[in-house]
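In keeping with the milestone schedule agreed at the kick-off meeting, the structural modelling team has produced records for the first pair of proteins. Each record is given below as a sequence line and a structure-token line. The laboratory manager (R.T.) confirmed that both were archived under the project's standard naming scheme.
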Amino acid sequence: RTLLTIGIASALLVACTKASGRYDVPERQPVELRSYLEGRCNVAKAANQQLLLELSAPWCSDCQKLADLKVAEPLKSALSRWTVAEVNVRDFDRHVELLEAFDVDAIATWVVISPSSCSTPPAQWPAVARRTVEPASGWLSSTKELVRWLGSMAR
């Protein structure tokens, strides 16, 4: 009976973990990030989309909550119409040039970018809009509000 209870508890834990949108954005070295962002930019341009840059960190409770929201409707569908590039800035000590270029002073932040050339440095890509996303605190970030904001930004 005890083994059965442990087995059921383990199965529930695995199911809950898989259902979660846990934060899993890798840390990238500058050269890796440049290549990744250039690739995401090329995907966006090929699809005639703007690029949604998500600047986040694993310690950030808003980023963790956002990871859960991004895998649930209606935000999942809204994001499927975007090319998203996720950047782990760690403790605000990674990829500082992007943080400064896009005037990021809080994590999590979304930046809508419309680059004319993917070969220029990402910090030089023109930002169309920027938004701090704070679903853990409930300020400026209900799922409906995020979907509405994304809809207003899409071209």
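The second protein of the pair:
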Amino acid sequence: MLDHINLRNILFFDIETVPQQPLFTDMNEELQKLWEYRIHRFKPEETPQNDYFWEKAGVYAEFGKAICISVGFFTQADPATNTYQFRLKCFASHDEHQLLSDFLSMLSRYFDISDKFFLCGHNIKEFDIPFLCRRATILGLSIPQILDVSTARPWEVRHLDTMHLWRFGDYRNYTSLHLLTTVLDVPNPKDDLEGSQVADTYWHQNDLPRIAQYCQQDVVAVARVIQRFKQMPLLSDEQIVYVP
């Protein structure tokens, strides 16, 4: 599986997002009305508006923001033994414009060669990539070619989504990364946070470094899943290099 793709041509990434404001009532009145219209079919009647906003706003690009993007890529450490290093870098900031500018500039400079590199993550086709493209557009930032699929033909899209790969053509199936790593016996060290705790960790605890570490662990997990798909030895913790 994926025999035609070189590990060193894949950029693995993951993002973390939160509501733009800690409270529903912190938004302006127009956005409050638009939020209520957007979610009125989904919100249970007994759930307070502030609670539902807190729980769900981070997944909507119109009402959420990106606070962290972690990336990782393989480099060949020893050609003689075909061993690898995995280099991890994290972009994290309260300033979303700066965060996205830094990430998109990195993509444009090093990975925007459409016929060579791939972007890889879990559920990136339905969440991470659309979210980043929408936020970049809202903030007036240019979208690199490798991200922009608006005019691309299906065979030109260079996105590897481990959730879609695991579907094997079954479009009804949703499998979390946690479940996938468990059934594939892939080490997943995410034991500090859960996705539902990210907003609280950001807005109430002001602990962005903790979120960044959590985000990096997802990138490593996805890289190991791809290795399992390719029937390769799994990346060890000693092979991971953290890049400032």
